[in-house]
Design brief:
This is DUF481 domain-containing protein. It comes from Glacieibacterium arshaanense. Residues 1-24 form the signal peptide. Helices cover 8% and strands 68% of the residues. By secondary structure, the protein is mainly beta. It has a single domain (3-279), classed as Beta Barrel (Lipocalin). The strands form two sheets. A ten-stranded antiparallel beta barrel has the order 1-3-4-7-8-9-10-11-12-13. A two-stranded antiparallel sheet has the order 5-6. The longest helix is centred in the N-terminal third of the chain and has 23 residues, at 3-25.
């Protein structure tokens, strides 16, 4: 995934959202229109498939660390996990939601270039391995400035929490085959976001929506940016149960200067979510 892809994805879905809004604003409401946009609680559970990209760099006492990519062997970095989400319509125009999922990545490879990990210098040609585990929590509050029977346009305030655990090990250094090194590092990235969302209730059974949020700022010991883009569609098979498909793109690029973690974190994900939906 590249920055160019991210920009094209943002522009494409933003254009789609505007086109949907324009069409929905002039659409006739189905006379049998019922529960869409009025359900008190929505619970979802399913599976998420993620294409993971990015890198982590760990700084030393006097030197900057080398960014270690999550796909050093070129074999791809696809991962999957369980997901769970909940949405509570607190009042007619007020909604609170929470999403959780995770990514995992582990691989072994031979270093192609010299690497600096903290205070350790690892020469090209050493045997290395990385393990990465990331738990994501995405909580939002939305207020619907426009709410009609067939659409909803809302402002969004949120918190994107990322709990990163990173293990790196190296051995068999060229010229020093008995030397080895390992480190385990972790940090939590609570990143606030602002943005907006659009929901289109195409029929009493079918819903589509999109959202875009992000922020670039220095907050305490975290300095950088985050962008989150979503697009989803749900179809109710029965009155209270349905199925859904979503696309989720995230781009986190931050510098962290905590006592327990000093370095750079860059995480880019493209995820497809398949899930069951319960509304009541």
């Amino acid at each position: 995934m590249t920055v160019g892809f991210s920009k094209r994805a943002f522009a494409g879905l933003a254009g789609l959202g505007m086109a949907m809004a324009a069409q929905a604003a002039h659409a006739e409401v189905d006379p049998s229109y019922g529960g869409q946009g009025t359900d008190k609680f929505t619970l979802s559970a399913g599976w998420v498939f993620t294409d993971l990209g990015g890198s982590i760099g760990l700084n030393g006492t006097t030197t900057d660390g080398t960014d270690v990519g999550f796909n050093p062997d070129g074999s791809g970095a696809s991962t999957s996990s369980f997901l769970a989400s909940a949405n509570w319509r607190v009042a007619n125009r007020h909604r609170v939601s929470l999403l959780w999922y995770q990514t995992k990545r582990d691989t072994s490879y031979t270093t192609q270039n010299d690497i600096q990990i903290g205070n350790e210098f690892i020469p090209a040609g050493a045997s290395a391995s990385i393990e990465l585990k990331n738990n994501y929590f995405f909580g939002t509050y939305r207020y619907s400035f426009i709410k009609k029977d067939n659409l909803e346009l809302a402002g969004l305030l949120g918190l994107y929490g990322s709990n990163v655990k990173f293990n790196f090990a190296a051995s068999a250094y060229p010229g020093n085959p008995t030397r080895s090194f390992s480190t385990s590092e972790g940090t939590t990235l609570p990143l606030p976001v602002v943005g907006g969302s659009f929901d289109w209730y195409l029929s009493p059974r079918w819903t589509a929506g999109t959202s875009l949020s992000g922020m670039k700022a220095k907050i305490g010991d975290i300095d950088g940016s985050i962008w989150v883009l979503t697009a989803s569609t749900d179809y109710m098979l029965f009155h209270n149960f349905g199925v859904g498909l979503s696309y989720l793109h995230t781009n986190i690029d931050v510098g962290v200067t905590k006592t327990s973690f000093d370095g750079n974190v860059n995480i880019k994900t493209n995820s497809f979510l398949i899930y069951g939906v319960v509304k009541f």
